[in-house]
Amino acid sequence: MSFALDSRLVAATLPIGELGLSRLLLMNDARYPWLMLVPRRADLREIVDLDVAARATLIEEIASVCEFTRRLPGVEKLNVGALGNVVAQLHVHVVGRAVGDAAWPGPVWGAGEARPYDRAAAERLIAQARAALTLSL
Predict the structure, then answer these.
(1) Which of 30, 87, 88, 90 could form a disulfide linkage to 117, CB 3.0–4.6 angstroms apart?
(2) CA-to-CA distance for 70 and 49, rounded, in angstroms?
(3) Distance (Å) of CA 57 to CA 22, 23, 37, 52, 60
């Protein structure tokens, strides 16, 4: 079976590009700089489902996305997680947080309603990510 992005992730995100292993997405919620990495392998549910080399690659990709995210204006803390309770397909969230943000100090999941990006703001953030990270489009 080939890689296919879960339809719920497609509906909730905007594409940024492809890292070596993962597809990089922007969660369409302007309340937080929230990126998501989805390894392009079929039928993955957990990080331990990746072989050793792919796990190492994923960790380095997460670190790169974290470095980018923490340099964004207003980011004071990073939240990184691979929950998969709603969408079982392996995906890793990198969320830039700030004291007083819409969900602070709790988790972003289930905290209010998402506020979709306006087109220009989304395009700016996507362009910044593409310039800062080694991506193919």
Answers:
(1) 30
(2) 28
(3) 9, 13, 12, 9, 5
Asked if residue 12 lies in contact with residue 25, where contact means CB atoms within 8 angstroms, the answer is no
What is the identity of the amino acid at 32? Y
Range of the domain at 26: 7-104+115-132
Structural domain count, the chain: 1
**Domain-embedded: residue 27:** yes
Percent of the chain with pLDDT over 90: 91
| CATH code (residue 16) | 3.30.428.10
Report mean pLDDT in 10-residue bins for the chain, 137 residues. Answer: 92 97 98 98 96 98 98 97 93 97 92 95 97 85
Any domain includes 1: no
pTM over 0.85: yes
100 within a domain of the structure (yes/no): yes
- Name which of 53, 58, 50 is nearest 19 in CA terms: 58
